[in-house]
Amino acid sequence: MTAAETLRHARRVVVKVGSSLVVDDQSKGPALSWLTGLAEDIALLRAGNRSVIVVSSGAVALGRGRLGLERNARLDEKQAAAAVGQSLLMQAWESALASRDMTPAQVLLTRDDTERRRRWLNARATLEALLKLGVVPVVNENDTVATEEIRYGDNDRLAARTAQLARADLLILLSDVDGLYTADPRRDPDARHIDRIEALTPEILAMAGGANAQASVGTGGMTTKLEAARIARSAGCATLIVSGLVPRPLFAASQGARATLITAPASPLQAYKAWIAGSLEPAGLLEVDAGAAEALAGGRSLLASGVRRIEGRFDRGDSVRVLIDGTAVGVGLAAYSADEMALILGRHSGEIEAIVGYKGPGVAIHRDDLVLTP
Ligand code: GLU
210-227, pLDDT tens digit by residue? Predict the structure, then answer.
């Protein structure tokens, strides 16, 4: 598939917008007409039945403009600028998206939120709920609490983690260049543009680190873009690096504008299931009955009513083995903690809320979180 076809076939798209695009160079305020053009593009994607999540930088730059702070401000001043600028940033998104009757939601994440299982599950559930409500999540790093050692580092990486969290199949990095070149195109007339990357080989990474290193302003140069693409790729998500220096960049990409596509070998769900099956040490087990076994084989979720016995100390989101007559038949992520599971096993889904005291997932393991042993 070409870049334009990938965009047309995507189901869930994360669009990363950098500060240099969001903030107007002259006024130091938001680049409203550009954002309105992008809102138009987002509306078009959504009309084609694709869900869209935005990852937007610009808080520090907008806050700095408002407060009249220098570029080399201290870290705490930068964090203060982000706190001021984040609300200006959301006002800008609010007005841009409102032009097409869309509602933004401010989602602030820190690295912990995508690395700690419980917070990760919560963040994922919130994003799903927002998308279901037809809202456009606008994600940024929570700069108030994110000091250097606990930061994502840059919003390219944050966008890749967001794509992974939301199981997106396409990450679009709007950049100030239209992709990766074999050399710096401004200096080398022989520099060739690379349309498509199937594997992030050392040669490709060297191109990004060498001649292209200066090709992009902002925190994330080409190296961090490829690092983001690597994270996305391992989550089954393709990455498109396109120029944001045009009024309707996503529309332009859909019409075949020059871009670099980094493909992913698997789908997000396949990658997610491979991660469940391969990288987690099960913290417990659920013994299920024959009826449940049949339902699982038919691709259904594991209901609490089919669970006979549990073992181990696990939390919600931990991996647990599924056993039938003492034989492991699969592994999945527990939708409830061991303590809760002990209370709800054998009970019907409708009874769970009253027992655990909140409206939860209602199943023991959701089918998307379950991998059966072949
Ligand atoms: N979170 C920062 C901001 O909103 C941007 C970080 C980045 O773009 O890499 O200003």
Answer: 545 444 434 447 888 999
